[in-house]
Amino acid sequence: MAPPAEERRPDPPDLRAALEPLVSAFAGRRLAVLTGAGISTDSGIPDYRSPGSAPRRPMTHQQFVASDRFRRHYWARNHLGWRHLQQAEPNAGHRALAAMERDGLLTGVITQNIDLLHVRAGSRTVVHLHGRYDRVLCLSCGLEISREEHDRVLVELNPHWRERFAELEDLEVAPDADVVLESTADFRIADCPRCGGILKPDVVFFGDNTPRERVEAAYAIADEAEGLLVAGSSLAVMGGLRFARRAAKAGRPVGIVNRGSTRGDDLATASVHAGTSQALPLLAEMLAAHR
Ligand SMILES: [Zn+2]
């Protein structure tokens, strides 16, 4: 399905001119950055909320916990797809933010992404609001296992499973029909090796709350800053929007770089409809010149 024309605007022909209002708002200020899926699409990680994406129903925490059929389904797909995240490379947008932090322009990055690409690009102060794909947690005793280690267990339980299926990317999609659940019904999952509890990726599911200490860490980054840059997020989920609201309420400028409109546009001092891989390196260069 083609995205609606008004939602999927091309990048402005003169990006430098388009960024000027952001630079004016941010010049001389240390910034907190909030990033979403849009910053990672150029690294080959699809953004399911971007304009034109097919509607999807993510698996909820409640479904995952209540039903071992859902857990088998989730882990089967995760088993197929997680290495795709492992193999993704940071892009120019991630690298620009890492460079801005090194130059003292940022208090840190708050990300809604679980892909760790900020860390791989060299960002040091990063809060992963929605968790990270590379860890698995026991819901009962809190034991933390690396996804790599868990992979060895799942491969042993399910020899040749990966070879039997094409790579799937939509890891969290709830099955719409029993026939879909049936396709993964023979996948064998592992429980906590310490207490036998349910193992879940360290990822915030639909219907989960973000752990309080993580929200506090994110607020600390945001409140230490003198402005908020939103990059590659449409602020569709409340978790992201509250940072824009908080900054605006405190009188700090909010600037947005995103393809398509966002729920925070009316809070923004300046909003630029552009791809982050193109806009962030240029923005970094322009802000550095204003120091
Ligand atoms: Zn346990």
Automatic annotation (TrEMBL):
<dbReference type="InterPro" id="IPR026590">
    <property type="entry name" value="Ssirtuin_cat_dom"/>
</dbReference>
<feature type="binding site">
    <location>
        <begin position="258"/>
        <end position="260"/>
    </location>
    <ligand>
        <name>NAD(+)</name>
    </ligand>
</feature>
<keyword id="KW-0479">Metal-binding</keyword>
<protein>
    <recommendedName>
        <fullName>NAD-dependent protein deacetylase</fullName>
        <ecNumber>2.3.1.286</ecNumber>
    </recommendedName>
</protein>
<dbReference type="InterPro" id="IPR003000">
    <property type="entry name" value="Sirtuin"/>
</dbReference>
<keyword id="KW-0963">Cytoplasm</keyword>
<dbReference type="InterPro" id="IPR050134">
    <property type="entry name" value="NAD-dep_sirtuin_deacylases"/>
</dbReference>
<comment type="similarity">
    <text>Belongs to the sirtuin family. Class II subfamily.</text>
</comment>
<feature type="binding site">
    <location>
        <position position="276"/>
    </location>
    <ligand>
        <name>NAD(+)</name>
    </ligand>
</feature>
<feature type="binding site">
    <location>
        <position position="195"/>
    </location>
    <ligand>
        <name>Zn(2+)</name>
    </ligand>
</feature>
<comment type="function">
    <text>NAD-dependent protein deacetylase which modulates the activities of several enzymes which are inactive in their acetylated form.</text>
</comment>
<dbReference type="InterPro" id="IPR026591">
    <property type="entry name" value="Sirtuin_cat_small_dom_sf"/>
</dbReference>
<feature type="binding site">
    <location>
        <begin position="232"/>
        <end position="234"/>
    </location>
    <ligand>
        <name>NAD(+)</name>
    </ligand>
</feature>
<feature type="domain" description="Deacetylase sirtuin-type">
    <location>
        <begin position="12"/>
        <end position="291"/>
    </location>
</feature>
<keyword id="KW-0808">Transferase</keyword>
<keyword id="KW-0520">NAD</keyword>
<dbReference type="Pfam" id="PF02146">
    <property type="entry name" value="SIR2"/>
</dbReference>
<dbReference type="InterPro" id="IPR029035">
    <property type="entry name" value="DHS-like_NAD/FAD-binding_dom"/>
</dbReference>
<feature type="active site" description="Proton acceptor">
    <location>
        <position position="130"/>
    </location>
</feature>
<feature type="binding site">
    <location>
        <position position="192"/>
    </location>
    <ligand>
        <name>Zn(2+)</name>
    </ligand>
</feature>
<dbReference type="GO" id="GO:0034979">
    <property type="term" value="F:NAD-dependent protein lysine deacetylase activity"/>
</dbReference>
<feature type="binding site">
    <location>
        <position position="141"/>
    </location>
    <ligand>
        <name>Zn(2+)</name>
    </ligand>
</feature>
<dbReference type="InterPro" id="IPR026587">
    <property type="entry name" value="Sirtuin_class_II"/>
</dbReference>
<feature type="binding site">
    <location>
        <position position="138"/>
    </location>
    <ligand>
        <name>Zn(2+)</name>
    </ligand>
</feature>
<keyword id="KW-0862">Zinc</keyword>
<feature type="binding site">
    <location>
        <begin position="36"/>
        <end position="56"/>
    </location>
    <ligand>
        <name>NAD(+)</name>
    </ligand>
</feature>
<keyword id="KW-0012">Acyltransferase</keyword>
